[in-house]
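Note to self: keep these together.
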Amino acid sequence: MTDLQHHGDAELAPGLVDLAVNVRTDAPPPWLRAVLHASIEESASYPDPRPAGAAVAAAHGRPVGEVLLTAGAAETFVLLARALTPRLAAVVHPSFTEPEAALHAAGHPVARVGLRATDGWRLDPAAVPEEADLVVVGNPTNPTSVLHPAADLVALARPGRVLVVDEAFADTVPGEPESLAARRDVPGLVVVRSLTKTWGLAGLRVGYALAPAPLVARLAAHQPRWPVSTPALAALVACTTPAARAEAEHAARELGRWRTVLVEHLPPSVAVEGDPRSSFVLLRVPDGARVRQELRDRGWAVRRGDTFPGLTGDHLRVAVRRPEVSTAFAAALTDVLDPAPIPEEVP
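Structure:
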């Protein structure tokens, strides 16, 4: 049985270098921290979501009624499971496991659509059951880091079906070329976004969904009052300004250079799965469980792959970090896989 509740933070422990959690940075930038600190002064009042809703709507060229603010992207998956009654939900795997976990918890039948390594973990729209009236897919997909063409995603839409595209990592790809966030012509489309990954806000729990206004209203009806905190709302406003979006674009381009450094320094016996485009890479290593433990013993935390449906114990997800961190990790991995011989003592 696959452990759908396992996530990268479970791999962490004091003293370990974190390559298991795929947040780009370990803290928000100074200007964003200043925004968060200032928002504390307003926290005696109940949160007012209107400025944040307007800011997100403007950033994506949509009406405010098509924006749902959430306590992290993961909340959207719970809301979908509670608000909808699908006859059959199809979840494309390997992928973030929270959508399937939420659907199971709500008692909905789930069909897994397995992508294949031999296809580069790319989506085949024809593999999704025609009878599925709820489909969930990530783009770029966690943990494969594969970016699917927007046209393949749109091919999944049809009247009577809700199509959920998890774009939590979309802003890690320069230009967001395959994003559907601005598409209002795709029937039943729900785009899920997060501020966690680029801005180092995992603990703040801040995200949003974009969908047709009637569907947004159905989801919102299952939220408690004031679901998003005042600091999270302040972060939404700050991170959707043109200046912040330009900074995110620069970070995405820098991330691409860092990813190249990591991949180029990996030992030859390590396979890089698919065509990674996001802030993490999926590796296949021989004897993966042993390798992961030995890396841990040497001070490195990586994400095990066997809790993702469709992957094995030989799969490891590794976050992209600064080049000096990646080269040090690659050296440690090389030594684990091909340890240097112990020199013989000279009599």
